[in-house]
Amino acid sequence: QVIKCKAAVLWELNTPFSVEEVEVAPPKANEVRIKIVATGICRSDDHVINGKIVAPLPMVLGHEAAGIVESVGEGVTTVKPGTEFTLRGCALVHDLKQTRPGTLRSLGTFQQLLLSPFLHFLNTQVTQGSTCAVFGLGGVGLSVVMGCKAAGAARIIAVDVNKGKFAKAKELGATECINPQDYEKPIHEVIMEMTDGGVDFSFEVIGRLDTLMAALLCCHVACGTSVVVGVPPDSQTLSMNPLMLLTGRTWKGGIFGGFKSKESVPKLVADFMAKKFSLDALITNVLPFEKINEGFDLLR
């Protein structure tokens, strides 16, 4: 049956969300309908609000959430109503133009109930004893630091222009923290010198073209891997010399950390419940759904 619930709808650029009632359709084949328990606020959502990422409006945003399966569509056999569920991925948004009037088929997590297909991703593995560089120390960047530590990285170099983030980064596993503004030479050259030739793995978790290139260039020329995590603004392209890859570097994307969600997320939850790591440092504020606009003010 169709269910009514609240959703935060973005009707126009650079305006607050409108919290209003929408109708959510029942799940079709290979879909699940999920009751959202909590959702995170991400800079990618703000890029849509201010127009840096072009998307059709109106829209329900949001892509980092945990919830409980309410109902399942035909063909879904691996979860059932009552199963706990997580959603992650910056592509999880959907415009409302084709659903008004009528029922909503939306993947945005800024609503109390949503529909989702199953998503799967390949894995990116940091090796034991490796050297890593993490560009950007927001919530996702700090999570990358934690992941590198959990994987057994020997050195984790955290890079950010905000020195106020360094203490938390070190608390979560960073071995060194550097600010590009403290150096006269490009930051990739600084890291190359620090690591005697470059890091094994770098992660760009900002979404800027200059830091994407710096993250690639700080990798070892013969065997380094640079992972793109940050979401750059729409309509921007990066010009690069193929020689940067010819000698052996790898450049790849890593949305969702490269995890296959259905298999990997339950293991993460089990590890968290076993106190193998803490997420407390990543949570800065907790707000009720109706204060979503206040949440974005805090983000900015």
TrEMBL record:
Molecular function in Gene Ontology:
all-trans-retinol dehydrogenase (NAD+) activity; zinc ion binding
Record's GO cellular component terms: cytosol
Q: Which Gene3D superfamilies match?
A: Medium-chain alcohol dehydrogenases, catalytic domain (3.90.180.10), NAD(P)-binding Rossmann-like Domain (3.40.50.720)
- Cofactor(s) annotated in UniProt: Zn(2+)
Chief localization: cytoplasm
Q: What is one GO biological process annotated to this record?
A: retinoic acid metabolic process
Instruction: Quote any Pfam family the record assigns.
Output: ADH_zinc_N
Keywords of the record: Acetylation, Cytoplasm, Metal-binding, NAD, Oxidoreductase, Zinc
Residue ranges that the Swiss-Prot or TrEMBL entry lists as coiled coil: none
Where the record annotates domain Alcohol dehydrogenase-like C-terminal, the positions are 139-272
- What EC number(s) would the UniProt record show? 1.1.1.1
InterPro entries from the UniProt entry:
ADH-like_C, ADH-like_N, ADH_Zn_CS, GroES-like_sf, NAD(P)-bd_dom_sf
Catalytic reaction annotation = a primary alcohol + NAD(+) = an aldehyde + NADH + H(+)
Q: What domain of life does the UniProt record list for this protein's source? A: Eukaryota
Subcellular compartments: Cytoplasm
Q: Which family does it belong to?
A: Belongs to the zinc-containing alcohol dehydrogenase family.
Q: What is this protein called?
A: alcohol dehydrogenase
Source organism of the structure: Propithecus coquereli (Coquerel's sifaka)
